[in-house]
Amino acid sequence: MKEIKNICCIGAGYVGGPTMAVIALKNPHIKVNIVDINKERIDDWNDEDLDLLPIYEPGLAEVVAQTRNKNLFFSTDVKKGIQEADMIFISVNTPTKTYGKGKGQAADLKYIELCARQIAEVATDDKIVVEKSTLPVRTAEALKSILSSTGNGVNFEILSNPEFLAEGTAIDDLMNPDRVLIGGDDTPTGQEAKDLLSGIYEAWVPKKQVLQTNVWSSELSKLTANAFLAQRISSINAMSALCEKTEADVDEIARAIGMDSRIGAKFLKSSVGFGGSCFQKDVLNLVYIAKSYGLDEVAEYWDQVIKLNDYQKRRFADNIIKNSYNTVSGKNIAFYGWAFKKETNDTRESAAIYVADHLLDEQANIVVYDPKVTAERIYADLEYLNTHSPEEIRERVKVVNDPYEAITGAHAIAVLTEWDEFINYDWEHIYKLVLKPASIFDGRNILEVGHLKKIGFSIKNIGK
Ligand code: NAD
Ligand code: UGA
Fold this sequence. Notes:
By secondary structure, the protein is of the alpha/beta class. The protein folds into 2 domains: 6-213, NAD(P)-binding Rossmann-like Domain (Rossmann fold, 3-Layer(aba) Sandwich), CATH 3.40.50; 307-461, Rossmann fold. Helix 9 runs parallel beside helix 12 (296-322) and helix 12 crosses helix 13. The longest helix has 32 residues, at 215-246. Strand 13 (439-442), helix 18 and strand 14 form a beta-alpha-beta unit. It is built from 18 helices and 14 strands. The structure holds nicotinamide-adenine-dinucleotide and uridine-5'-diphosphate-glucuronic acid. Nicotinamide-adenine-dinucleotide binds next to helix 5. Pathway: Nucleotide-sugar biosynthesis; UDP-alpha-D-glucuronate biosynthesis; UDP-alpha-D-glucuronate from UDP-alpha-D-glucose: step 1/1. NAD(+) binds at residues 11-16, 36, 41, 92-96, 133-134, 167, 278-281, 348. GO terms for molecular function: NAD binding; UDP-glucose 6-dehydrogenase activity. One of its GO terms (biological process) is glycosaminoglycan biosynthetic process.
């Protein structure tokens, strides 16, 4: 069997960067080149100061320190990366389409197609091409058609190897994955390709956790996994609304049902709504695929997961307004957290963006503190919605680097991200700095309610 000596990964993002860093660490005999057209991102990956890596993930800097410029390289030379590689991972973004057919639902595959065309143009010897990005089922068919159109005698074997890491725990998830999924053809060359990729993971993942399937099952398993995870959050969030009407407590319910081993305890944390770059886009993509096969009931079923999530974000913002004597106009609302979850600087689809937008509609002033997110990112997130002018956003939204500055003179505090540090703030001091009556809206149910009430705060939780 052929040996893999050189890997190229196209896309140095949240998946490509950490995944390849771990593959390089565990396979010191393989040279791994990560290439990207974004020069700034590549420069940041090559920055000597590891604090300036483009992505913040616990443990990532340590892995990069051990591998970079030994067998892990970051470059903008995509062509050279492709030419040298035995195996090419495609790990580019696959956002929701914002134009044309499928707008707002289908995955935009233009970046994937560009990669395939470039591989077809540049490759002079046989390659294994691995879909690492999350893709609609049957994308491999389109890739194969583009790659085989060159007629230059080069053979391409296409594998699907979706990534299941979660941000904030990426390195741990990569080091100890529940499973690695590899889909490919059942032909002799397809089997050889699957085994070669399995071998790379088996450098650290037990063989029984490396699953091989056909390529369509692999592609569809990834969308299914994200849909099931998102559905769990929407299910518990649906119950949170009912809890708020009935004096039941959603955390007690999560504990009670989570102890049923058939349900399981994980992913039952009620919140202001799920965010992140993938849940919404992947569920919408599933809805689109189901519709395109005429499976309207299936599409509607999954669409509810998104509708409920939108409802939860809006409900949280409406609760702030309702409990602020029905108006937030001209009032200061302090946001603790902007990232879509703790331990990441990623803000894509963060619930905070939509809650802020809703409050801006009501003419609130917002002061944001997040330990990892920059002011430019926050302004860019709000401007991207195109609902308020950049001038209005800069006038109404202030971003500060000090959590105590954020709440000084605030009419209300809203917790949007579950950063641990929020729990241990000096809440007695905070009480003195906010306007009275002192109100907290905990969108993550992380603060100690008894302690805060004793200080004098009124606190509204999700699902309580
Ligand atoms: P990202 O936006 O962080 O990174 C993608 C990178 O690809 C960007 O740096 C972009 O410049 C680069 N790129 C785009 N087109 C290119 C081209 N033609 N040539 C070279 N570089 C190109 O995206 P991400 O979060 O890493 O996600 C990548 C894929 O992985 C998506 O399909 C996503 O659904 C999936 N995924 C993401 C996560 C996650 O936690 N973020 C987890 C699992 C799967
Ligand atoms: C998610 C999946 O967990 C990964 O397996 C998958 O690889 C990834 O999407 C992807 O395909 O991109 P990620 O979005 O990084 O990972 O983070 P999660 O931990 O899943 O959290 C997503 C959102 O759900 C966050 O906003 C989080 O706060 C929220 N959440 C999560 C809840 O509100 N409640 C929970 O119980 C869990």
